[in-house]
Amino acid sequence: MPTYELAMMLRAMPKVELKNSLLRISNAIFERGGIIRDIENLGFRPLPYKTSAHGLVHREANYFVFKIDTATTVVSDLKEEYSRDVDVVRQRVFKVTEELEHKCTLEEELLPPAYRKEVQKMIEVGKTQVNRFTHKFSYNSGLDYYPFQK
Amino acid sequence: MALFKGTILKSIILNTHRALTAGIRYASVEVPTDDSPVEMENPFTKERRQCILCKLNITPDYKNYRLLSQFQSPYTGRIYGRHITGLCKAKQTAVEKEITKAQNCAYMPYTYKDKAFLKDPKLFDPENPVRTHRF
Ligand SMILES: [Zn+2]
């Protein structure tokens, strides 16, 4: 399982240049002792919002996802390197999390409020919060006037 | 004297009666007939409801932006709440998390729904939420 996913958006460019920049990106990973498990090409498509990078406004991009294994200390270094790369419009790194075994709790959530666990908990908390402000002002405390509204 | 005899007789009769009833009860436990009630689960319990993502065993992923855009309003790009989508808590938070990731990666727009996905099948009806809301 890869530990990180690199989502890269590269600027619109001819195929040869694209190949070169992909090589550059992967070499940066290899130089730092990382492994590339998989490269996914999600295609060339218009960006949902215009993005400015390196003094240019981009409206289209080549989408790539790199699935990589690297040391955690390398990630910030990689990000810094790609931020200087003129071909990279946008880049994001996500940690891949393992899928957890999960049982659907919709049935419990659709119960009437009185039967829901969280509501019962709230009621229990509410019971401890009644009559919180019962402290009475004592006139012999040194203040010679009553500080609250009567 | 006669009264004393009477009480003794009474007690004897009562005791024998008690013994008899106890014996009968004991026998009924020991020998079940085919007509006796059978231990079974309640046959009238309804089937456990599941949300659509749990039923189809789908884990939302930020790369699958087409699925995620189905949980987005076509007018404002806002993520529909749990009372509309009908998802369980865990899946709803997962969907929201993945949508923000996808929007961050420029896979998905923030303020509208991609017009290519406007005719996708509807997973739920925003007009008829599970729980009423004030809008
Ligand atoms: Zn569920």
TrEMBL record, chain A:
Pfam families: Ribosomal_S6 (PF01250). Coiled coil: none annotated. SUPFAM superfamilies: Ribosomal protein S6 (SSF54995). One of its GO terms (cellular component) is mitochondrial small ribosomal subunit. It comes from the Eukaryota. One of its GO terms (molecular function) is small ribosomal subunit rRNA binding. GO terms for biological process: translation. InterPro entries: Ribosomal_bS6, Ribosomal_bS6_sf, Transl_elong_EF1B/ribsomal_bS6. Belongs to the bacterial ribosomal protein bS6 family. This is Small ribosomal subunit protein bS6m. It comes from Leptosia nina.
TrEMBL record, chain B:
Keywords: Ribonucleoprotein, Ribosomal protein. GO terms for molecular function: small ribosomal subunit rRNA binding; structural constituent of ribosome. This is Mitochondrial ribosomal protein S18C. InterPro entries: Ribosomal_bS18, Ribosomal_bS18_sf. NCBIfam families: S18. It comes from the Eukaryota. It comes from Leptosia nina. GO terms for biological process: mitochondrial translation. GO terms for cellular component: mitochondrial small ribosomal subunit.
